[in-house]
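re: ur question from the group chat, yeah i did fold both. here u go
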Amino acid sequence: MSEKKEPSVWEGFRAFLMRGNVVDLAVAVVVGAAFSNIVNSVVKGVINPVVGAIGTKNLDHYSSCLSHACKGDEGIRILWGSVLGATLQFVITAAVVYFLMVLPMARFLARQEARRKAREGTHEVVQVTELEVLKEIRDALVAQRTAGPGEQAHSAGPGEQARSAGPGAR
């Protein structure tokens, strides 16, 4: 009696890690973390100085006060500058990811799909044409067998006459 050996916990864990999705996700997290540093630098080095031409360089300093006495830690402040900075970082990140990663990949996949469909389409046409020719040959051979010697079994159609006459007859 042979017993089936169940995979160990480590083998299962290794199989889980080697799945394509997990590896792709890990790469995406690493690239995303590195990319967020670039976006933060662009916001701090380019966007904040442009905004600073109007007011302060640090967007976190932009706020509004809900109460009359907003001095120091007193009062209720709404820090809309922080929200604006985070929104700008998100929009820049989303735009770069879309235009540099998603859009080119979608175009690449669409071209691959079009090539695959074109290959399949020409392959199907060749198969159908060969099949039709073989059926016509079979029908002609059957017709010759059933007809007596010297008799013609049926009159050939216009396409069959051109084919039976040879290549130079057209």
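okk and heres the other one u asked abt
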Amino acid sequence: MDALPPVLRAAHDADDTQRWEGLAHVTLSRNRVARLLCRMMKLPAQGHGIPVVVVFERLEHGERWRRTFAGRSYSSDLTVRDGLMVERMGLATNIFQVSSGEGRILLDLVAFRFLGLPLPSWLRPRCRATEREQDGRYVFDVPVSLPLLGRAIHYTGSLERRDV
């Protein structure tokens, strides 16, 4: 954590609830099945320059991230288990290997569960998300691909901290 840029440390190594605001760009697949799956997961709708708010809330055993993209909200609870980050998001559980280097955080999806059932590796989504600092802003990049369907969603953007 100490090697990360100040903005990333502030977002992930604080004990208080934080509100971050900015703009995002969301690109959805043209595939109807992929779009339907994204909608079922309450992921952001497509748009460019859309307002985004992320609230990082500290919990006893982790964090809750509440995200709102142009009025469309979803949240997830994050904990650490066996050295991996576990993100519970509605009916899905994402399990990430987290690493850092070159001033950024890398989150590689290594396992996925739906309704508590693990999906085999050939069927699970693919995601290598990054977080970094640029010009004093928190920058995120989240591409998600699905087997046989290709890129399902890709959202990027930057945020600045606002007082809660």
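fwiw on the second one: The helical segments are 6-12, 32-40. The first strand starts at residue 18 and ends at 28. idk if thats what u expected
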